[in-house]
Specification:
The complex is a heterodimer of chains A (305) and B (359). Chain A is of the alpha/beta class and 305 residues long. Chain A folds into two domains: 102 residues, Translation factors (Elongation Factor Tu (Ef-tu), domain 3), CATH 2.40.30; 159 residues, Nucleotide-binding domain of ferredoxin-NADP reductase (FNR) module (Rossmann fold, 3-Layer(aba) Sandwich). In chain A, 20% of the residues lie in helices and 27% in strands. Chain A contains eight helices and 15 strands. The radius of gyration of chain A is 21 Å and the shape is globular. Chain B is of the alpha/beta class and 359 residues long. Chain B folds into two domains: 188 residues, no CATH class; 135 residues, no CATH class. Chain B is built from eleven helices and eleven strands. Chain B has a seven-stranded mixed beta sheet with strand order 1-9-8-7-6-2-3. A four-stranded antiparallel beta sheet of chain B has the order 5-4-11-10, with no helix packed on it. In chain B, helix 7 crosses helix 9. The chains are: A alpha/beta (305), B alpha/beta (359).
Chain lengths: 305, 359
């Protein structure tokens, strides 16, 4: 009787597509292939408000720390072992290779578990995933940053970037709106952004209280305070889904070209790799072709905003 | 590709030998449906006698050998104040017998999604490499429409493909592994008559399709009809149960869940197949649901299948097996939905442009 066993040689069994070489992290396609994340230690926790905290993470393995590189606007999948994963935008500086900072709101299953964690606990991150704000393309132009509520978290990475390369950009404006004065995040950095990074900054709240002395109303009201050439301006908009529509259409009326407005979309995600389809928007995926989309693409995708 | 002819009795002996030594799955009759027709499924088999070679189509597709309902992605072992992650994607060698061309085409489409994208899946790759696929052609059921999707024939993605030409099978041998297995058995070179019979068989299959769907230009069509009221109409029928996605050979959407082990000393990250028709598919933390209506979710499934997404080069991923139509509890099938969409458009065209006969 002949040998009819069907076997596969041992070396072919656990074949990894990119095994044996360090992936090129500048290329979107070679970031990470398995479900094994980078183990991180929570080195610091900074409370910002009742529901938001900044978690400072440090990748434990020095080699992994070296290969972890990201561009402003990208996100990562944060894993709390036992609880699951959540997509979180990176809000630290791209030049900071020692620590990753994540600004997280306590909202769901994973983040609630994370808020129980103390300094020194281990979590894991996969990534970075997604597209980034085209910071190189914006050189020599005005930059208009518009953040609403928690939208300031992904905005910090381009702000840090601009601070590092301030001479490459003309005027930089930051408009920041929150629902209530108590929900304003990173207030301790406002002075730094204005004095050190030379960013012209304005804030606004929707529901002012006694302590608030600034303006109140919708965030688009702040645009009157600046005068700039809209044709020479790039805009980045981050915030809750309801904000995109009226801010972007306002900017469109002002004359900023549609392909120079960038929004960062939010969807449910389970894999970050374009496999699980949970984040599909129109005919594409938020994790592969997003989260940063220009407004022109957003208008062409069905049900994007 | 090498072509040979094998007699049916010799083929059974070959299957018997290959099945006895390996982990093998083949079609078996498992039940009888409410309409009196047998229900077939791919079941573990130990001899050729257990396999129904003349089955029609299995109820579930062969996708589950590559994308199981539940799959362990990684395991965390907790130690005092720390944890270790283990990732394991080994797959045991498996033989799949009697896959239909639509099943094999579906696996080829899954290859595009799972292996050729930006992030190849090692779990899928291990399974794909460790499977030995024996395909068989068949006469279509009345509701099969794979001919309309051009998926009724298959050229690659299998190890061995058998076409029934009466007393024997016409074999297309597509791997050296298959050829070395078959060496021990009595094979004939295809004669002129055999070739004629094969072509006759192909013609026969091609002309047996009773259901036809017009899919040319459908991607553009779906874009135009994005806000069509027919989605609401079919959405009202849909029960949002997700059965269609479970039996579909190309639906690959999944959900990742993590659960603690019962002894609390570890946890497992699992993915399980999901359906875009389930209500919380696009619901984000905070409660906002991007597609709250049945019709929206049904539309997205059709959008994905007949328009295609970026990850699979915008090709249509439906193979036309109509498993979703057969399994649907609310009697929704692709043929009716697409024809409805077409009709909607055609009536609308006639109201804009009066037809020449009227004027």
């Amino acid at each position: 009787m002949p040998d009819m066993r069907f076997t596969i040689p041992e070396q072919n069994l656990n074949l990894e597509p990119f095994a044996g070489r360090i992936p090129d992290f500048q290329k979107k396609s070679e970031v990470m292939i398995t479900d094994k994340g980078y183990k991180c230690r929570i080195t610091n926790i900074v409370p910002l408000s009742s529901h938001e905290r900044v978690f400072q993470l440090r990748i434990v393995d020095p080699l992994e720390r070296e290969v972890f590189n990201f561009r402003p606007g990208q996100f990562l999948m944060l894993e709390v072992p036992g609880y699951g994963e959540a997509p979180i935008s990176i809000s630290s500086s791209t030049s900071n290779h020692e620590f990753i900072e994540l600004c997280i709101r306590k909202a769901g299953h994973v983040t609630s578990a994370l808020f129980e964690a103390r300094q020194g606990a281990f979590v894991s991150v996969r990534g970075p995933f997604g597209t980034a704000f085209p910071m190189a393309e914006m050189q020599g132009k005005n930059v208009l940053l518009i953040a609403g509520g928690l939208g300031i978290a992904p905005m910090r990475a381009p702000l840090f970037w601009i601070n590092d390369h301030r001479d490459r950009y003309k005027e930089v404006f930051l408009l920041y709106g929150a629902k209530e004065p108590s929900q304003m995040l990173f207030t301790y950095q406002f002075e730094e952004w204005q004095k050190v990074s030379h960013v012209q900054m304005r804030t606004i709240v929707e529901k002012p209280d006694q302590s608030w002395t600034g303006r109140s109303g919708m965030i688009t009201a702040l645009l009157d305070e600046f005068s700039f050439n809209p044709k020479e301006t790039y805009a980045i908009v981050c915030g809750p889904p309801v904000m995109f529509k009226f801010v972007c259409s306002h900017l469109d009326r002002m004359g900023i070209p549609m392909n120079r407005m960038f929004v960062s979309l939010e969807r449910r995600m389970h894999c970050g790799m374009g496999k699980c389809c949970r984040c599909m928007v129109g005919s594409t995926f938020t994790c592969l072709d997003g989260p940063v989309f220009d407004y022109w693409s957003v208008m062409n995708l069905k049900e994007a905003i | 590709m090498i072509y040979k002819v094998i007699s049916k009795t010799e083929f059974r002996a070959f299957i018997d030998a290959i099945v006895k030594e390996n982990r093998a799955y083949g079609p078996q009759k498992v039940d009888t449906g409410s309409n009196g027709k047998p229900i077939y499924q791919f079941m573990p088999v130990k001899s050729a006698a257990e396999i129904d070679f003349d089955y029609t189509v299995t109820h579930s597709s062969a996708k589950h050998f590559f994308l199981p309902y539940r799959d362990e992605l990684s395991h965390f072992n907790f130690t005092d104040g720390n944890w270790e992650q283990e990732v394991n994607y080994e797959a045991p060698p498996t033989i799949l017998i009697g896959l239909r061309p639509c099943d094999i085409n579906a696996i080829n489409i899954l290859d595009d999604v799972m292996l050729h994208g930006a992030y190849p899946s090692p779990y899928y790759l291990a399974r794909r490499k460790n499977n030995f696929i024996i395909g068989m052609d068949h006469l279509p059921l009345p509701d099969c429409f794979c001919h309309s999707m051009n998926r009724h024939t298959v050229n690659h993605g299998f190890n061995l493909f058998c076409s029934d030409i009466g007393e024997s099978y016409y074999l297309s041998i597509n791997s050296s592994k298959a050829y070395s297995f078959l060496k021990e058995f009595e094979l004939q070179e295809p004669t002129y008559e055999d070739n004629c019979r094969l072509i006759e068989r192909r013609k026969d299959i091609k002309h047996s399709f009773e259901t036809k769907i017009e899919v040319s230009g459908l991607p553009c069509f779906l874009d135009i009809e994005f806000d069509s009221p027919i989605w609401q109409k079919w959405g009202d029928k849909c029960l949002s149960c997700g059965t269609c996605a479970m039996v579909c050979p190309t639906c690959y959407c999944y959900s990742v869940e993590e659960r603690f082990d019962i002894d609390l000393e570890g946890s497992t990250r699992q993915n399980h197949l999901y359906s875009c028709n389930l209500v919380d598919f696009a619901q984000v933390t905070g409660g906002h649901n991007f597609r709250p209506k049945n019709g929206d979710r049904l539309k997205y499934r059709y959008y994905h299948h007949y328009r295609g997404f970026a990850a699979n080069d915008n090709q249509q991923i439906c193979v036309g097996c109509n498993r979703c139509g057969r399994a649907c509890l609310a009697d929704i099938n692709p043929k009716d939905v697409i024809n409805d969409l077409r009709l909607e458009r055609e009536s609308c065209l006639t109201c804009v442009l009066p037809s020449p006969s009227k004027t």
